[in-house]
Design brief:
The chain is mainly alpha-helical and 277 residues long. Helices cover 52% and strands 0% of the residues. It has 13 helices and no strands. Helix 2 packs across helix 3.
């Protein structure tokens, strides 16, 4: 009985690996993303399209925007927000921004995805939303912390004041990301010392100096992970991770917005055979 159970588990694992290696065509991924009957397929389709070299083509941008606005499933909407943040325009930040706040959605998953999305799209009109989220003591620490990270791209008085305020938060992650954002904006380093930051800022303004004279270049954080066991076995897979770049709206328009940022290409890839199935 034990042998049979073990064999069954092994076969299940092998079947899972087989499914991993079955790469759908672009056309199949697009159909998955529009599947109104299967939430998992919609999410997987959006993720597959958004990580493809042609994922920033206009038909897919329309799909991401539609899903951000209309899809009721938190996982699908979060995937669409991430896709739009990766490939969209600064104006798309205004579509994402409302989903950062508890008054709009109860889903922490959506709010976190939305705030992370605003790390990648530069638009000063979303600053008030980021400040409200960072200062919202009832919000989850991860969401507030991500808002602090996003504010590191905006050299403005209201941003500095908000970041100094949240240095008093109970959660270490919020303190850390607020302090790092302040350092990026000013080139200074007073750690978690709220009083020292406020004193330096006020003295700098009193001397009619710009507190942002030593500002460092802002780049959004990216995700990486260690390989899982089957990736070591499947040595032919060339897994790459997205580089950390300046947000869309800050970096030049001729930079790619896909994984092909690795090769320094100058134009966005065309959708190719996206309709093939």
């Amino acid at each position: 009985m034990v042998t049979m159970l073990s064999s069954s588990c092994v076969m299940d694992d092998l079947n899972d690996i087989g499914r991993v290696f079955e790469t759908p065509t672009p056309g199949e991924a697009a159909r998955w993303a529009l599947d109104t009957h299967d939430v998992n397929k919609r999410r997987e389709g959006i993720v597959l399209l958004s990580t493809a070299s042609f994922g920033g083509a206009e038909p897919y941008l329309k799909l991401y925007r539609m899903s951000v606005e209309d899809d009721d499933n938190p996982l699908v909407k979060s995937a669409a927000i991430a896709a739009l943040a990766r490939h969209g325009s600064p104006e798309d930040a205004l579509l994402i921004a409302p989903w950062c706040e508890q008054k709009v959605t109860e889903s922490v998953t959506i709010r976190w995805a939305a705030v992370q999305g605003l790390q990648r799209l530069h638009n000063r009109d979303v600053v008030p939303v980021l400040i409200r989220v960072a200062r919202d003591w009832s919000e989850q620490a991860e969401v507030r912390s991500a808002a602090c990270v996003a504010m590191g791209q905006y050299p403005e008085d209201r941003v500095v004041q908000a970041l100094i305020d949240v240095l008093d938060a109970r959660e270490l992650a919020i303190n850390s990301d607020a302090a790092e954002a302040l350092s990026e904006l000013t080139g200074q380093d007073f750690g978690f010392d709220l009083v020292a930051w406020q004193a330096w800022y006020e003295e700098t303004l009193k001397q009619s100096k710009s507190p942002f004279a030593a500002q460092r270049s802002y780049t959004y954080p990216t995700y990486s992970r260690d390989k899982v066991w089957w990736e070591h076995i499947a040595f032919w897979l060339d897994e790459q991770y997205e580089p950390s770049l300046q947000p869309i709206g800050l970096r030049s328009d001729d930079q790619r917005r896909t994984w092909d940022d690795f090769d320094g290409g100058a134009t966005t890839d065309s959708p190719g055979a996206a309709g093939d199935g």
